[in-house]
Inverse folding.
């Protein structure tokens, strides 16, 4: 069917009113028509002109701009369809892991344009049953799908592509193909404006060639290319080096979901988690966020906890990040978090690692917490060298509480410094009853639940302290805080990997205010709702998370390929046996003299003692 005659017939019926679903479509022959796209396939679009039946037009008959627009809509539709299917079935992966794994592979094959099912199916195969060769095949097709979408729009699936290449690199390392793995890690590095922590960690691990990776073939040329990519890439934040190879499940949401994700509320990063506490923190050094201890410790919860922060909260595309670890004082009295918790299904889920710093007997310290956040691309604030004096004006710049905490933006509480700053911490809350007489200050500005841990500034927007907590009893002060002197003392005593910035006298109050709003971020503390048997994919199943860092450690030994054994190192050994020689009488001569000779015999290998294999020295039963 010719495109030009159809357009010529219907052009006379066009009106000047174009609806939101209507646009001008132009054919390769140059004719145009205003029509609504009512349906489409991978190869054609169905266009509806007012008052006329829909017409089906092959995509290759459209000009490039319209063709790309139609293909982009088609990819959005396919991504949305597959994403919804995947999320629905991920909810039951803990109860039916193998069934869901097969379903994901079927979804991957059924919708050949979308990468979601293949990305997660491959991780399930390689992480769960060590089928890394099969996973590699699936991941290669995932990369091809993403590259096809990026031909239409280079911004599509940036994060998904980085995850796919990273995971493919892990599978190739497990296949002992170091150069191929390095090439994929380079592609993962180059596909993102900032190097994800998991990609950087895997690249460093491959470069270092630890004992567990020693069988991997890795040429000097491949190593050079990998190191060059790491050196020239944008890798902000101090981060925390991970142990072992990790898969990434970071992904870009389908376009149709983006608007729904810009919600006013705060959603759990995993469906098995509930919100325990929320507060405010601020960046004091690369990759480090300072907040009140009250935000990350609670007296009524004893399980593992996951901490998250939100960067760029004032923008329309704010981002949630996982907190790798937190440093606080004390003993494991209330929080018992660990980096990894084992679940009944045998899988793992990640929590924030709590590092407790013991106090010397008779001493006290500020009730602060330092959060380690990999890839935190936020400039630190400058901190005053001394605390404010009594009667000084100040303001607490932090977030509120509840469902609109982020969308309401930063809230300012104004007040003055009260008293002589010698109040005992022991009177403030049950959590701190054993910590003696740390120096805290009082203010008439209110310290509410959401702004605990917020920076406190003077009239020129210099950071002069950090909000701590609310008084337990009646007092003329509305809040407690630690001054800049106490903040600095705590930081330099307990955080020995970074330094605090001194104030720059050349900066104006407006410049300091802009920096303050950029570096002040919400902090959330999550705990388990109850006993859970969900798998690692539970982080994704609530369909409410923003793009954030989700990664899974591979627990299989690379050296023995997860078998737990090596072939016998004796090259003469064949399934536990070696050839030997034995002398025996072959016959006699005419005069009766024995004729002796040697024959080949089957002997037990002295190296493996007849087993044909040796236990792998790097693992136990193939698992690290």
């Amino acid at each position: 069917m010719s495109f030009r005659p159809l357009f010529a017939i219907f052009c006379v019926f066009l009106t000047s009113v174009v609806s939101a679903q209507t646009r001008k479509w132009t054919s390769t022959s140059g004719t145009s028509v205003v029509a609504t796209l009512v349906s489409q396939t991978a190869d054609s679009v169905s266009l509806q002109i007012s008052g006329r039946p829909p017409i089906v037009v092959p995509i290759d008959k459209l000009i490039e701009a319209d063709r790309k627009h139609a293909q982009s809509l088609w990819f959005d539709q396919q991504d949305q369809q597959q994403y919804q299917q995947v999320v629905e079935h991920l909810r039951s992966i803990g109860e039916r892991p193998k069934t869901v794994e097969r379903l994901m592979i079927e979804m991957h094959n059924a919708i050949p344009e979308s990468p979601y099912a293949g990305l997660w199916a491959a991780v399930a195969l390689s992480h769960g049953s060590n089928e890394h060769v099969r996973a590699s095949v699936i991941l290669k097709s995932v990369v091809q799908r993403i590259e096809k979408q990026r031909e239409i729009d280079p911004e599509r699936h940036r994060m998904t592509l980085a995850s796919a290449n990273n995971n493919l690199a892990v599978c190739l390392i497990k296949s002992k193909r170091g150069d191929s793995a390095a090439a994929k890690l380079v592609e993962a590095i180059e596909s993102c404006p900032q190097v994800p922590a998991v990609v950087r960690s895997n690249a460093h691990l491959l470069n270092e060639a630890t004992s567990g990776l020693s069988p991997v073939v890795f040429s000097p040329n491949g190593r050079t290319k990998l190191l060059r990519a790491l050196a020239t890439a944008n890798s902000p934040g101090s981060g925390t080096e991970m142990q072992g190879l990790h898969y990434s499940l970071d992904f870009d949401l389908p376009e149709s979901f983006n608007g729904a994700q810009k919600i006013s509320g705060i959603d759990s990063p995993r469906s098995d988690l509930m919100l325990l506490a929320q507060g405010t923190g601020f960046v004091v050094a690369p990759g480090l966020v300072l907040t009140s201890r009250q935000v990350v410790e609670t007296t009524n919860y004893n399980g593992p906890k996951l901490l998250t922060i939100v960067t760029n909260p004032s923008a329309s595309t704010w981002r949630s990040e996982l907190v790798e670890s937190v440093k606080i004082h004390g003993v494991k009295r209330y929080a018992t978090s660990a980096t990894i918790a084992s679940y009944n299904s045998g899988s793992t889920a990640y929590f924030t690692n709590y590092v407790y710093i013991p106090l010397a007997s008779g001493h006290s310290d500020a009730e602060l917490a330092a959060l380690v956040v990999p890839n935190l691309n936020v400039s630190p604030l400058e901190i005053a060298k001394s605390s404010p004096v009594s009667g000084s004006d100040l303001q607490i710049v932090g977030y509120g509480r509840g469902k609109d905490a982020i969308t309401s933006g930063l809230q300012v509480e104004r007040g003055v410094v009260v008293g002589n700053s010698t109040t005992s911490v022991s009177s403030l809350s049950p959590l701190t009853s054993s910590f003696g007489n740390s120096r805290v200050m009082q203010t008439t500005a209110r310290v509410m639940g959401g702004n605990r841990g917020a920076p406190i500034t003077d009239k020129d927007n210099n950071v002069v302290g950090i909000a701590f907590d609310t008084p337990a009893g009646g007092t003329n002060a509305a809040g407690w805080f630690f001054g800049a002197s106490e903040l600095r003392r705590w930081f330099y005593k307990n955080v020995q990997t970074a330094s605090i910035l001194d104030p720059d006298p050349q900066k104006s109050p407006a410049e300091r205010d802009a920096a303050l709003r950029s570096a002040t971020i919400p902090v959330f503390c999550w705990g388990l709702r109850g006993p859970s048997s969900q798998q690692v994919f539970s982080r994704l199943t609530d369909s409410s998370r923003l793009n954030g860092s989700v990664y899974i450690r591979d627990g299989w030994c690379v050296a023995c390929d997860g078998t737990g054994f090596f072939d016998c190192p004796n090259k003469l050994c064949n399934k536990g046996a070696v050839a030997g020689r034995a002398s025996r009488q072959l016959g006699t001569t005419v005069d009766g003299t024995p004729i002796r000779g040697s024959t080949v015999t089957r002997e037990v290998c002295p190296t493996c003692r007849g087993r044909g294999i040796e236990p792998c020295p790097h693992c136990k039963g193939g698992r690290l």
Q: What stands out?
A: The chain has a mean pLDDT of 77. The domain at 393-517 is CATH 2.40.10.10 (Thrombin, subunit H). The first helix runs from residue 3 to 10.
